[in-house]
């Protein structure tokens, strides 16, 4: 495994894009803080722009553990497994042949400010008002957020 660390980052991305499986499972965590939602701005990777924190599920990790790992890597937030819940919502992306599993967390207002850990891939992470996030997010991620908001409103569930 140490050999992987010797490969330049750009070459890793190129190899990943060339050798990735046709079918990929993505995990995302939508983190709410009152009327705000956590979004990141990716500067490198398969898709760039404003997104919900998340990424591909690594082999050997459960979807929940993979989601928590991605959240910590991209935003510095270290949530516990019991603090997020899986939604009965799975989206698919026909272009990339991906399936997305979505989790939700609710933080209190005094929670820590996100600090980007993966500065190669992620430019910024911040809580923004939900109404602003809808217009900033990439269309696929905005659709996921809308579905989650509808689910929360219709079921009047808390996220914790």
Shape: globular
N-C termini distance: 37 Å
Oligomer class: single chain
How does the helix and strand content classify structurally? alpha+beta
Secondary-structure element pattern, one letter each: HEEEEHEEEHH
* Gyration radius over CA: 15 Å
Helix fraction, binned, reads 25-40%
* Strand percentage: 25-35%
Question: Averaged pLDDT, please?
Answer: 82
Largest sheet: 7 strands, mixed
Low-confidence blocks of residues:
none
Q: Quickly count the helices.
A: 4
The beta-strand count equals 7
What would the keywords be for this entry?
160 residues; alpha+beta; 7-stranded mixed β-sheet; 4 helices; globular
Can you give a write-up of this model?
- The structure is a single chain.
- With 160 residues, the chain is of the alpha+beta class.
- The protein is built from 4 helices and 7 strands.
- It has helices at residues 9-19, 63-75, 130-136, 139-155; strands spanning 24-33, 36-42, 49-51, 54-56, 85-93, 98-107, 122-129.
- Strands 1, 2, 3, 4, 5, 6 and 7 form a 7-stranded mixed beta sheet that branches.
- It starts with 8 loop residues before the first helix and ends in a 5-residue tail after the last helix.
- The mean pLDDT is 82.
Write the layout of secondary structure elements.
Layout: H1 9-19, E1 24-33, E2 36-42, E3 49-51, E4 54-56, H2 63-75, E5 85-93, E6 98-107, E7 122-129, H3 130-136, H4 139-155
Parallel strand pairs: 1-6
Antiparallel strand pairs: 1-2, 1-4, 2-3, 2-7, 5-6
């Amino acid at each position: 495994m140490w050999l992987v660390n010797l490969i330049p980052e750009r070459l890793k991305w190129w190899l990943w894009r060339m050798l990735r499986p046709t079918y990929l499972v993505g995990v995302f965590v939508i983190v709410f803080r009152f009327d705000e939602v956590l979004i990141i701005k990716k500067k490198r990777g398969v898709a760039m722009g404003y997104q919900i924190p998340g990424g591909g599920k690594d082999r050997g990790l459960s979807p929940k553990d993979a989601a928590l790992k991605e959240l910590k890597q991209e935003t510095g937030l270290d949530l516990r497994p019991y603090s997020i819940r899986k939604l009965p919502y799975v989206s698919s992306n026909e272009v990339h042949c991906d399936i997305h599993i979505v989790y939700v967390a609710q933080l209190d207002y005094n929670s820590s400010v996100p600090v980007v850990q993966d500065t190669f891939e992620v430019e910024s992470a911040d809580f923004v008002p939900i109404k602003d996030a809808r217009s900033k997010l990439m269309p696929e991620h905005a659709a996921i957020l809308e579905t989650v908001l509808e689910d929360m409103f219709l079921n009047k569930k808390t996220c914790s």
